[in-house]
Specification:
The complex is a heterodimer of chains A (357) and B (233). Chain A has 11 helices and 10 strands. Chain A has 357 residues and is an alpha/beta fold. Classes of the chains: A alpha/beta (357), B alpha/beta (233). Chain A: It catalyses: L-threonylcarbamoyladenylate + adenosine(37) in tRNA = N(6)-L-threonylcarbamoyladenosine(37) in tRNA + AMP + H(+).
Amino acid sequence: MIVLGIETSCDETAAAVVTDAREIRADVVLSQLDDHTPYGGVVPEIAARAHLEHLDGLIRRAMAEAGVGFGDLDAIAATGGPGLIGGVIVGVMTAKAIAAARGLPFIAVNHLEGHALTARLTNDVAFPYLLLLASGGHCQLLVVEGVGRYRRLGTTIDDAVGEAFDKTAKLLGLGYPGGPLVEQAAARATNPGRFALPRPLVGRPGCDFSFSGLKTAVRRHVEELGAPLSDADRDDLAAAFQSTVAEVMADRCARAIARFKADHPQGGALVVAGGVAANKTLRARLQILADREGLPFVAPPLRLCTDNAAMIAWAGIERFRLGESDPLTFAPRPRWPLDPTAAPVIGRAGVGSGVKA
Amino acid sequence: MKILGLDTATSGCSAALWDDDTRDDGVPGGRVIVQRSAPMARGQAEVLAPMAQAVLAEAGVAFAALDRIAVTVGPGAFTGLRIALAAARGFALAHDTPVVGVTSFEAIAHGLPEAERAGRAVLVAVDSRRAEPFLQLFAPDLTPIGDPAMLEPTAIAAWLDGLWPSGPLLVAGDGAGLLRAPLDRRADLTFANGDGIPDAAVVARLGATRPVGGPVDPFYLRPPDVSLPKAKA
């Protein structure tokens, strides 16, 4: 089975060709980073324009790299949401048109499910497993019981973790995007233990996250130190922020593991996904936790943690193998929670329920 | 030559199959085989692909048998115009079919009944969902006059006087209503009947006359609404 995947939900335009033998035949991603950097964040209309401009060329490239024609495909999968709707529509319409013209099934993939199932593409992880989904728009702990079957154990009650990285980077004058820039600054820190930051919700019951207080604490330190920050101050603060995030995540994951083990005594893996899963300090911290808990730890390669189309093609394969596809009347969904039974949390509308910041 | 026309650029959604019979000596000809349309300001992403499928199914023509795809490139609603453009590019990818673009202005102007135009120049106004409509003027033979524009209502009369100082004028398009007040002093002014929405059948017919091969890009006419963050003092 060969599936073309399309991803256009945020600021990466991507196309990939993947087989049900877990083989990525082609995986092309065009980052729009340079288009958005001057604005300090993703501008939806600029993103949508760029998706339209580049998508058909990227699909051509992916098909050529994979060495397949449209006649060789078994289905077309595209991100159907959640995300920036203007971009999602571009990917969905392109996919629907190819599907209609070639008489192929169309599969609208939940972008979050793409992240959630990546570990099955890369590591053939069996259900059930515990998933930490950490990205610019999300921070959730989910039990992945099967394709389309997700149980949310916890989510952020304010900022997504990637959002916290972006805001911290801005406060520290590091620029955008925050994730890699904070990580690089932290790696340069000469006294990473110099600042103690609060660890929101650590030790509290439940598996929810909170990051807005942490960001505020960083701001307070920046104000106390006075502008301009020295390189050493900036790097030490970045290190304090990053290690605190890792500690918070590990604490919340430890609680989720306890619940997961109680419900699924036969075990399963701890899996991370999403752009923030590319952070090496976080990965190392979670590896230690998983070792302690006796769980395998699975972190997909960095390139498959950030947004890509291989994960969309793969999620399409997973659904298609179960006989699922979508009609061409599918309506792109700006919001699309993985666990529709989980109550929306307090805080900014959309966070945790599926809208990217 | 079989051409599939698509439009979602303004407040409608339409698909049509045009069979072009333009002769080698340039005399135009052809007919609409099947056309479908629905008025809608939103939701074209749900309707367009099945609509195009239904048009071809009813005509008994396969996507692979299409000679061309013609699409409205704008201006209009940003998200809307991308819906048909993305679909056109997808159809084109699937069977290596050429795509040609037609502006909303051209589609609307050429969609007016000849009797209604009757020797008048045509001013097309497309609703930009702002106070300033998107505008283009055409001579009575539908040759464009001047460049497309997006103008404050108060600036429209002077702009028009510069391009077409006098003579009978027909105003068309879904933004025509916005011109009633600014042009109330203009003599010999008529507002067109009809919904002022591009029609995919007209888009397909015009598409037959366009050269193929060039890129078919969206025509936004207005940059994204975004400003650079203020530099810190």
